[in-house]
Design a protein that fits this description.
Layout lengths: L1 H37 L32 H6 L5 E4 L9 E5 L2 E6 L10 E7 L17 E6 L12 H4 L4 E4 L16 H5 L7 H7 L6 E3 L10 H8 L5 E3 L22 H8 L3 E5 L10 H9 L2 E5 L15 E2 L6 H12 L2 H5 L3 H5 L5 H9 L12 H21 L32 H27 L5 H13 L1
Parallel strand pairs: 1-3, 1-4, 4-5, 5-6, 7-8, 7-9, 9-10, 10-11
Antiparallel strand pairs: 2-3
Length: 480
């Protein structure tokens, strides 16, 4: 009986404890609900940011340090500089973000344009256009440009009159304030990895059914004129072309979707080849894409055409074949045929990978020192870092002014985003295959210079302008 009594006593005790825990949990949930309804970045009133309703502005990019991690600090603060995304890249209507010790309010809402706390306007290059710009531009209004893509997306940005309108830049150029040159390379270990590498003996055996070279492009006839070169090259050596451009070989059905370009099965197909034609869609200093990094990951020798200074970024002095070192595709074909039949010479291009020895200190330093990651949720991405760079600089000037010092001025330089005029290969003839370059890209580049000059004149006038005014000025430039 005593044991039964004790059991009942303990049972009652556990029931009471569980009931008490449920009550406390319910109370906490209710209080959190009330708190969330109170915490919200509201509209700016009288130049002050006030937090009122609910904390629901979630950033679409990973690993963003949010000010909400310290609610008390948020509630105690009521004024922050505003950074307005004029190009609605992030889609955020309002978010307080913390960048080290600095806090800024990020938004895409243009209603903040004339607020006295607005300090900078952020632009995404591909979406930058003349239809609407934040004018008049006040002396304390900085313009910041983020543009990681090919010049074919917006040529007028690549001319001095336009690029020098900006104060802060994040571009593929090593000279920009936030260089994105290695944006397509996840890390050093990725290119050192032997995961996909196929032994040379097996590659030689596979050569019975595969060409020595593979070409995978579906963006045909771009400004680099790469298809003209590969078409000529095909006259002297066999090339398997899986993409829409110069297509002569099919991928398995499940890999035909462009989304499969990073599929492991697609990688395994490419890894069987000895050489990959790695041609960029444009020829610009430091414009380097997955075209280069992919074959290096897979243990295939890239035959590269693109950035003129590509040797500054290769893992070793002998890790790629450079098209520009050959006067004609015929000579390149002859060299590749020689390597194809000489295992020792071929393997010399892969020695760095087999040994895991990257001798390029510039590449190693760039990866180690960059503050953002690629496909890595444990690191900030380059959008985060770009925002914080501008935020930190805005706050630097706020502190300087508090000390009675003149604000510091940052200015974009021509080498922050610069590409030469598209050119056809010397062996090309003006036939129907060359018309895209002759009739579209070269005229587009030439007109973009006039557009850049017209834009500069109108922005310096510091008044809103219409598209008609802009194009009238462009055509006026053409008639001079």
């Amino acid at each position: 009986m005593i044991r039964i009594g004790r059991k009942r006593l303990w049972a009652s005790f556990f029931c009471f404890t569980a009931f008490f825990f449920l009550l406390v949990t319910l109370q906490v949930v209710l209080e959190l609900g009330k708190s969330e309804r109170k915490i919200k970045v509201s509209s700016l009133q009288d130049g002050s940011l006030k937090l009122e309703e609910q904390q629901k502005h979630a950033y679409q990019f990973f690993n963003k340090q949010e000010l909400y991690s310290n609610t008390r600090r948020v509630l105690d603060a009521d004024r922050y500089p505003i950074l307005l995304w004029w190009s609605p890249l992030t889609g955020e209507t309002g978010r307080l973000g913390q960048c080290g010790q600095d806090v800024c309010f990020f938004t895409i809402k243009r209603t903040y344009q004339h607020n006295h706390m607005t300090k900078a306007f952020l632009f995404y290059g591909t979406d930058f256009n003349i239809d609407s710009l934040p004018l008049p531009r006040k002396r304390h209004h900085d313009w910041a440009l983020f543009h990681e893509e090919s010049p074919k997306n917006n040529y007028k940005l690549f001319h001095k009159p336009t690029i020098t309108l900006f104060n802060h830049t994040a571009t593929f150029s090593r000279h920009s304030h936030l260089p994105l040159t290695t944006q397509y390379l996840e890390g050093i270990e990725v290119i050192k990895s032997l995961r996909y590498m196929v032994p040379l003996q097996k590659k030689n055996s596979l050569r019975k059914g595969l060409a020595p070279l593979v070409y995978v492009q579906s963006d045909c006839d771009p400004p680099s004129d790469r298809d003209s070169y590969v078409r000529e090259l095909m006259s002297y050596i066999q090339v398997d072309a899986y993409g829409e451009c110069l297509h002569n070989r099919d991928l398995p059905q499940h890999l035909k979707n462009p989304a499969s370009m990073d599929d492991g099965n697609f990688y395994r197909i490419l890894a069987q080849y000895k050489f990959i034609l790695a041609f960029e869609n444009a020829v610009c200093e430091d414009y380097i894409t997955e075209k280069l990094w992919r074959p290096l990951k897979l243990g295939v020798v890239p035959v590269y055409y693109g950035s003129p200074s590509i040797t500054d970024w290769l893992p070793s002095n002998k890790s790629a074949i450079l098209v520009t070192r050959f006067s004609h595709p015929r000579e390149l074909a002859h060299y590749i045929k020689a390597l194809d039949t000489n295992d020792q010479e071929y393997e010399a291009y892969l020695e760095w990978k087999v040994k895991g020895a990257i001798s390029n200190q510039r590449l190693l330093a760039a990866i180690q020192e960059r503050k953002w990651g690629v496909q890595d949720i444990t690191q900030d991405n380059y959008i985060d870092v770009f925002e914080c760079m501008v935020c930190n600089r805005v706050w630097e000037n706020i502190r300087r002014q508090e000390k009675g010092l003149s604000p510091r001025r940052w200015n974009a330089q021509v080498n922050h985003l610069s590409c030469p005029k598209p050119e056809a290969f010397l062996f090309s003839s003006p036939n129907i295959r060359w018309t895209s370059l002759q009739e579209m890209w070269i005229p587009s580049f030439e007109q973009s210079k006039k557009e850049a000059q017209a834009l500069r004149q109108l922005v310096e006038r510091n008044m809103n302008f219409t598209a008609q005014e802009f194009w009238t000025l462009v055509f006026k430039e053409e008639t001079r």
